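Reopening this ticket.

The earlier resolution said the output was attached, but the attachment link was broken on my side. Pasting everything inline this time so it's all in one place.
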Amino acid sequence: MRQFALSGTDPVVLKLVPAAGAGVVAAWGWHRFMQRLDSARQAEWGRRWLNRLDGFNRIWCRRFHRLSGGEITLPLKGPALVVANHVSGLDPLLMIAASRRPLRFLIAREEYERRGLHWLFAAIGCIPVKREGSPRAALAAACRALERGEVVALFPQGRIRLDHEPRVPLKRGIAYLARASGAPVIAVRIDGVRGAGRTVSAVLLRSRVRLRHFPPLHLQEDDMDRFLSRLQALLGTP
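Inline output:
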């Protein structure tokens, strides 16, 4: 009877059964993975796929890069400015992973227009800045974002700069934004990135990263230089 049952079964069916089983397992695994991303997400980006990307980034930074230091203290609502030292291409991902609110980054226009990544930078609301020439358009866009109560993030050192390199004055755009908006400025210090000085490879090299964030700074009308000096000290070599 057993031999008869096997011999009467269509060979195509015998091939489809394990394939169907593998498909069910794969679908279940994908569903569980999406659930994990949904539960890891903390910031609301307005689109489901961006929220899930937020969850993936938090898992990646916390588990792979062993990010520590707690969350960046931001107001629950209203405008804020987040600034950090810039050591690698991993830095924005770390800052996003440590924030409960979406961050809108000012980034160099050539990076914003990078093939394969432009769609993502546009989707998360990055603001392109020309390295050469006037930054007025970018600063105006950042001011509008702050007026809408968003959080704007930037690297006032202007480019990747490591601790052993000579210090340079911070870009004064951060002081302009702080004065124009009245928004608090939260400084963040990034340490422990294994791929320091690199862009893409820094994301892939496992690190043990620590973020330190400091009490908010407020720019008074007459102390721009003192404000920039204080900010420089927080972002510089500890």
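Reporter confirms the inline version is readable. Confidence is low (pLDDT under 50) at residues 1-6. Residues 10-40 form one domain.
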